[in-house]
Amino acid sequence: MDNKILGLHHITAIADNAKRNFDFYTKVLGLRLVKKTVNFDDPGTYHFYFGNEQGEPGTILTFFPWEGIGKGTHGAGMATHIGYAVPEGSLAFWKNHLTENNVSFDEGEIFGEKLISFNDPDGLQIQFIEPKHKDNRSVWTTAEIDSENALKGFHNITLSLKKADPTLKVLTDILGYSVQNQDNNRYRLITDSIDTANIVDIIEDGNLPFGINTGGTNHHVAFRVKDDNVLMDYREKVLSAGLDITPKIDRDYFFSLYFREPGGVLFEIATDNPGFTVDEPLATLGTALKLPKQYESYRSQIEKELPKID
User: Fold this and answer.
1) What CATH number is given for 8-305 in this structure?
2) So what's the pLDDT on residue 96?
3) CA triplet 214, 58, 235: central angle to 5 degrees?
4) Which residues pair with 61 in a beta bridge?
5) Residue ranges of domains in the chain
6) Neighbours of 132 (CB within 10 A)
7) What does the pLDDT read at residue 310?
8) Run of H or E including 98
9) pTM above 0.90?
């Protein structure tokens, strides 16, 4: 299994306001800020990483909070819904907790799994799902959210596409997923290389307009591999399929490749190594501003430009 895609690594989205984003995900949803750094291409913008206590792949939701970017539009060619696994029986807690925090939600069920759906302050679409199978991942707890209710990490990601087949081919032929279920225009794909964060759903809708990728929308979806050697094997597979893909990029906490699948969604493949404890210990993850080495000499200027979030 070590040479396979190991489900989701992280998901990256765009926010409009750094403090509002930080407050919502740490205080309302109870996630841990495991890394506070900056955008590699725009060091005047934060890059937040939220996850579980260890910052494990498969739990990491990251944001580029571009101040004042405005609200985007969900649509075709995007990852449109982020699904989190929650403990069995915890949806009642979350319905009450969201209500107390003035977050409206809808109840539903997808492929026999109960869920609630809601939007974050920027309009990002989140789903809390009680999986059919027990999820044993460790969690991050807060004063308000204990281990019986805390988010486990990703359950699935949903892609909205005008045509499913070209993307299905990438997921099955290159990334090793298989179609587990279909309900009308919704497909569920799964990889058996890992038992969590291993599901990709596709909604096919030829009439859906293309989305606008700004605040409250997903920027890209990252798939997980063990290390650099497996990463570069997948680069060859993507190239052999006739798709363009970047060279290997060092993101400090993992190494990455990026390619756009035929339906328009930006895919990333990212490594487990070196991980988030490479530059700060587990106990203090996310407490200090960490800068890519090329920006360290500009630290004082960058710190002045970044919005205050504490």
Assistant:
1) 3.10.180.10
2) 98
3) 80
4) 11, 50
5) 8-305
6) 10
7) 80
8) helix 91-100
9) yes
